Amino acid sequence: MGFALGSKAIARGYRLAAYDTIGSTSSEAMERGRAGDAGRLWVVATEQTAGHGRRGRPWQTPGGNLAASLLLSLPKGSAQAATLGFAAGLAVTEAISVGCEDSLRLKWPNDVLIDGAKVAGILLEAVTLATGRSIVVIGIGVNVRHAPEGVPYPATSLAACGSHATPGSLFEALSDSWVEQEVLWDHGRGFSAIRDRWLGSAAGLGAPIAVKMGESVFRGTFETIDSDGRLVVRSGDGSATTISAGEVHFGAAGTAAL
Ligand code: BTN
Hints:
By secondary structure, this protein is of the alpha+beta class. The chain has two domains: 7-200, Bira Bifunctional Protein, Domain 2 (BirA Bifunctional Protein, domain 2), CATH 3.30.930; 208-255, Roll (SH3 type barrels), CATH 2.30.30.100. The protein has helices at residues 7-11, 25-34, 84-96, 167-185, 191-200, 251-257; strands spanning 15-22, 41-48, 66-74, 104-107, 111-114, 117-128, 134-142, 208-213, 216-225, 231-234, 240-243, 247-250. The mean pLDDT is 93. Biotin binds at residues 24-26, 48, 51-54, 57, 59, 61, 67, 69, 111, 121-123, 139-141.
């Protein structure tokens, strides 16, 4: 199996539940959270048989890739939990950067790209318990060795960009890079610093984008993300529109794919 937490993660009290194969690390983390786990628990596997992604899409994790889900338990009234995905995106880019750093970009809201192709996806799931506490599961899938086939977007793997990372080495680095981002995030109070970093690695900033929301498509220029992490798109008439959820496609290729 070969999974271990990094030294910073251990020092900060994180715990690990590691599997060779599991249905879904996020489902397992959510189940443990509902059963009363106190959080700061990573559930990891190198193969999932029922991984899920955003919009109810399946997420393929054949053996040799990394599926990692972090269970957090947030106090009643926690704001800004939705911005955790941006902190996670930064942690992933830092962990996978060795050898591929020049071509790494973050795509709103939570994808990690290498040369424009998706190498990692992040899914945030949250529930509020009867106690008022929120359970948040940050599910992270990284194509370490294999890129998925038959998906509706360009995909790649770390191996394809020359990285020798293994699921174990990558997870150890990720558990530590997460600690740095979590400290910066500071229960959402530090989101503006996270936002600045995220924008520094954002794909398509200042360029034409199309955002698919259900059946409708909104087109404009990707201007920024706001203080809540929402996408800000400038239209041809000069007006700005703020978008909370949608699927971003870049430039002419994105337009053709819609
Ligand atoms: C996306 O659609 O881009 C998000 C994909 C998230 C996949 C990860 S793999 C680990 C965790 N377990 C799951 O079932 N999903 C997430």
